[in-house]
Amino acid sequence: MFRKVGIMLVFVIMMSLLTAGAAAAQGSTAVIDAGNSDRVHLRAGASKETASKGLYFTGTQVACDGTSGGEWTRVTIGTEKGYIFSAYLKTGDAADAVQSRQPGGIVVAPKGTVNFRKGPSADTERIGLLHDRDVVNVLGETAGGWYCVEADGKTGYVKNTYLKLSDIPGSDVSRGNTWQKAYAAAIRDGKNAGYTYCLIDVDGNDIPEMVVNTGFEAGGCQIYTYSDGQAHALQTNRLYFTYLPGQNLLCNSEGNMGYYYDIIYRIKDGQWEIVARGEYDTTTGECDEERGRYICQNYTWNQKPVTREAYMAAFDAIYDEKSAVEPTGCVDYDTIMKVLGA
């Protein structure tokens, strides 16, 4: 008698757990909790005998379509639809208690960038570009060899050959290493009422450069680039500079008290490097009105003495001054922090 009651009790408990799992998955969203494992299968049908469409990590949020195949719930992750065992889905307070096991992913882009696509196929729409060493949050991997990831507030896919999983949890990495947060962190401790800020596009990629104009000649400008999760600053001599949008060239042309210079920079591997440097001094009292430059007695280009004509020819061969622009649209500290989402 006791044995029969015990068996019935176990059966009731098991059925109630399965029912609870299925019920918990009914709603607009749920969170994967694989228990002792770190990921679960997304199945093509409501059975473990059907093909796996991919593996998704504990902590990944799914959209539930409101139907359940008994122990299974139909869900959508990114653009992929399939079934997950209902006991592995949590909602409400139970979802909030799930400890994410999503890893971070580090982009490996031999050519500098890789396509970030809407679906797990090269034929789907490109929704952005991921840059070498960018860090993303990995939700899972499809059976076709595409990682489903979160980057820059979007969910999309990148081919697994272009992503290396990190030991650092994705929630700790990708959400703290966007260019916006890196720029905000770089200026957070340097708030000054006289400074102005703007974003410019020197190298023509999806990540702008940020200009901090101190407002006084001795302070110059700091021009930030982003790579490897950090902001890198170029300190200009005095305030004036121009750049060629999308052509990856910037020129700091300034001078004072009879000494003048042109320092041409480009961005390489996310950081600034000097392309060429020219200097001239000891004015003759004359001015080249067309070019807006004083005429001097001494000229050097890359530390070698040259004539004025050779100096200007070398400069023009690298930098198209007529196409160059100055930064515009500068804003105050509070405004740029809002732009950066900080």
C-alpha termini separation = 67 Å
Judged by helices, strands and strand pairing, the structural class is alpha+beta
Summed up, the helix count is 6
> Low-confidence parts lasting 5 or more residues at pLDDT below 50?
1-25, 171-176
The helix fraction, in percent, is 10-25%
Assess the beta-strand content as a share of residues: over 45%
The profile of the biggest β sheet is: 7 strands, antiparallel
Domains, number: 3
**Shape, please?**
elongated
Computed CA radius of gyration, to the nearest angstrom: 29 Å
Global mean pLDDT: 85
Overall strand count: 24
Element order: H for helix, E for strand:
HEEEEEEEHEEEEEEEHHEEEEEEEEEEHH
Describe the structure.
This protein has 342 residues and is of the alpha+beta class. The protein has three domains: 2-96, SH3 Domains (SH3 type barrels, Roll); 103-174, SH3 Domains (SH3 type barrels, Roll), CATH 2.30.30.40; 179-339, no CATH class. It is built from six helices and 24 strands. The strands form five sheets. Strands 2, 3, 8, 11, 12, 13 and 14 form a seven-stranded antiparallel sheet that branches. The longest helix is centred in the N-terminal third of the chain and has 23 residues, at 2-24. It starts with a helix and ends with a helix.
In short:
With 342 residues, the chain is an alpha+beta fold. It has six helices and 24 strands. The protein is 18% helix and 45% strand.
